[in-house]
């Protein structure tokens, strides 16, 4: 197209990822010998070989709040247009907010299998990306996933949840507690709810009853975890709801789609049982920083290690509540005794912490589906298939499990090419300039139907007050390093009565608090430094505040963000 080929042109691309084998089937810039290399450097090199006049800079930075020192105000202000090629909503929302703030056109697109869509976000002409959201994806009820699965998707959803709970969330909670015990304890006491109690119970269990110091401890943990998941929990469930149980209306409790579960009998001669033990013990060892011995991959030696484990007999518990309401969103219920239990747990944790080595920390493990050597998918497939076996659900191989648990929808080069072509057509209009909103097109296409739907972008919502009007694209600017009083008076002159001023999550001023009057004659920037307790970056010359206002009839007026310049 000749973009960024002129003397003043420059194309900046950034991606913190490296090329994987699966990337080769859905684009045309990478080759198999590029696997393991940075995506941006390879893409830039390939593009320059197509057009040597292209001026391109390849970066390997993620775009987000943590890299605003790289993608600073000067960077954004010098852009002509931004083109998204992102794979998650949060990143899209962040870039959308940056483009909104700096008033830059954003060409947004996405693909999902045979579907693709493009959205034009043009300053002052269209609504922004974040102005509308897709409906949330429908999920299986919590009680179905945890106690009454009836297909492999439910088993894999449960397996993924258990993986994250055991290997990521709990170690992260342990580290949060150990990093600042007093602050963590205060937060738990202030919360005083079932979630806080669950967090503390998990930390205590991890550091006391289930603490691992040797690899044999990890094998023991894995074997007892098998017994808990696939034997004891099933026995407890069928103790509460026997096979002949009925509902309050007299109908059989275990009627379709519910499946009556049966406990498994662990056997070292079952390869799937040993595979589960191996994956679970290796990952448990990783969280505790314990070296993994070579013998774990030897079936006979692993079986001998498992046979050393003493498994206690199961005793059913009376009075256990198992959630059966499909509308329930949590399996934990609060109680009036939570505060007392939390205090007792914190006391036990403090005693436990004193017995830990100095500087002890765990290593949380984030699920990574694409590394076949990290045992993540081995554990998830093992968890799901053992659970499927409990409920007589057909099992799946590791590859199928990877597709479902990793929420993989195969990417199709045709969809990608179509989205790219549609975005590039709109890019001509953006670079040409001076186009009306009716000249642009948003597109939704589904190549499988086939369906091609093009529409004008939706204009932004206009808000009015007196003789003023503004949209989400507007930002008010106040220069001269004003005081809080001067900011309030500046708005008063516009017929707006400010009653609170916020900077990020910090409340700088509110007319509800008498003590805040002391801040009226302080500079806004000084109050922000004092309240937020952070230094403003040296590359910033202003801060952005959100002011809540009313008109003279006490009606709330949503005004634009205000940029207060202090130098």
Automatic annotation (TrEMBL):
SUPFAM superfamilies associated with the record: Activating enzymes of the ubiquitin-like proteins (SSF69572)
GO CC list: cytoplasm; nucleus
Keyword annotations: ATP-binding, Ligase, Nucleotide-binding, Ubl conjugation pathway
Segments passing through the bilayer: none
Similarity comment text for this entry: Belongs to the ubiquitin-activating E1 family.
GO molecular function, one term: ubiquitin activating enzyme activity
GO biological process terms on file: DNA damage response; ubiquitin-dependent protein catabolic process
Pathway note: Protein modification; protein ubiquitination
InterPro entries per the UniProt record, alphabetical: ThiF/MoeB/HesA, ThiF_NAD_FAD-bd, Ub-activating_enz_E1_C, UBA_E1_C_sf, UBA_E1_SCCH, Ubi_acti_E1_SCCH, Ubiquitin-activating_enz, UBQ-activ_enz_E1
Source organism: Gossypium laxum
Protein name: Ubiquitin-activating enzyme E1 C-terminal domain-containing protein
Residue intervals of the Ubiquitin-activating enzyme E1 C-terminal domain: 440-562
Active-site residue list: 143 (glycyl thioester intermediate)
């Amino acid at each position: 197209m000749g973009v960024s080929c002129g003397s003043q042109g420059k194309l900046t691309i950034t991606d913190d990822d490296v090329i994987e084998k699966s990337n080769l089937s859905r684009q045309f810039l990478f080759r198999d010998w590029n696997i393991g290399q940075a995506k941006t450097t390879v893409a830039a090199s390939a593009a320059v070989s197509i057009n040597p006049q292209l001026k391109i800079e390849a970066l390997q930075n993620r775009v987000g709040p943590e890299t605003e020192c790289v993608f600073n105000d000067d960077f954004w202000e010098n852009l002509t247009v931004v083109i998204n090629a992102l794979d998650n909503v949060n990143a899209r929302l962040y870039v959308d907010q940056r483009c909104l703030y700096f008033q830059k056109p954003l060409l947004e697109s996405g693909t999902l299998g045979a579907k693709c869509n493009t959205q034009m976000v043009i300053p002052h002409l269209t609504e922004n990306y974040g102005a509308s959201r897709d409906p949330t994806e429908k999920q299986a009820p919590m009680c179905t996933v945890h106690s009454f699965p009836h297909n492999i998707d439910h088993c894999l959803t449960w397996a993924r949840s258990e993986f994250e709970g055991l290997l990521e969330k709990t170690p992260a909670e342990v580290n949060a507690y150990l990093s600042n015990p007093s602050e963590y304890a205060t937060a738990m006491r202030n919360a005083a709810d079932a979630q806080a109690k669950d967090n503390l119970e998990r930390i205590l269990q991890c550091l006391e009853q289930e603490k691992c110091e040797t690899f044999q401890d990890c094998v023991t943990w894995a074997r007892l975890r098998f017994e808990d998941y696939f034997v004891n929990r099933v026995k407890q469930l069928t103790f509460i709801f026997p096979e002949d149980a009925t509902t309050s209306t007299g109908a059989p409790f275990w009627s379709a789609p519910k499946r009556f579960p049966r406990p498994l009998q662990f056997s070292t001669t079952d390869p799937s049982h040993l595979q589960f033990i191996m994956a679970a013990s290796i990952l448990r060892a990783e969280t505790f920083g314990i070296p993994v011995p070579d013998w774990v991959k030897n079936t006979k030696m692993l079986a001998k290690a498992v046979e050393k484990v003493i498994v206690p007999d199961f005793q059913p518990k009376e009075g256990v509540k198992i959630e059966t309401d499909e509308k329930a969103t949590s399996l934990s219920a609060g109680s009036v005794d939570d505060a007392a239990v939390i205090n007792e747990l914190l006391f036990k944790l403090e005693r436990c912490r004193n017995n830990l080595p100095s500087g002890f920390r765990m290593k949380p493990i984030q699920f990574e589906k694409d590394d076949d050597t990290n045992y993540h998918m081995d554990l998830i497939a093992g968890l799901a298939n053992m659970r499927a076996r409990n409920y007589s659900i057909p099992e799946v191989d590791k590859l199928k499990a990877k597709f479902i648990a990793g929420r993989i929808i195969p990417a199709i080069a045709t969809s990608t090419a179509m989205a790219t072509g549609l975005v590039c057509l709109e890019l001509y209009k953006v670079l040409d300039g001076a186009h009306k909103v009716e000249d642009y097109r948003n597109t939704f296409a589904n190549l499988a139907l086939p369906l091609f739907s093009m529409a004008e972008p939706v204009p932004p919502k206009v808000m009015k007050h007196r003789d003023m009007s503004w949209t989400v694209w507007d930002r008010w600017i106040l220069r001269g390093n004003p005081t809080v009083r001067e900011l309030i008076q500046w708005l008063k002159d516009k017929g707006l009565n400010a009653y609170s001023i916020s900077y990020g999550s910090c409340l700088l001023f509110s007319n509800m608090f008498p003590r805040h009057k002391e801040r009226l004659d302080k500079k806004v920037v000084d109050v922000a430094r004092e309240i937020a307790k952070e230094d403003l970056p040296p590359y910033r010359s202003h801060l952005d505040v959100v002011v809540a206002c009313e008109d003279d009839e006490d009606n709330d007026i949503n005004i634009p963000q205000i940029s207060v310049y202090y130098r």
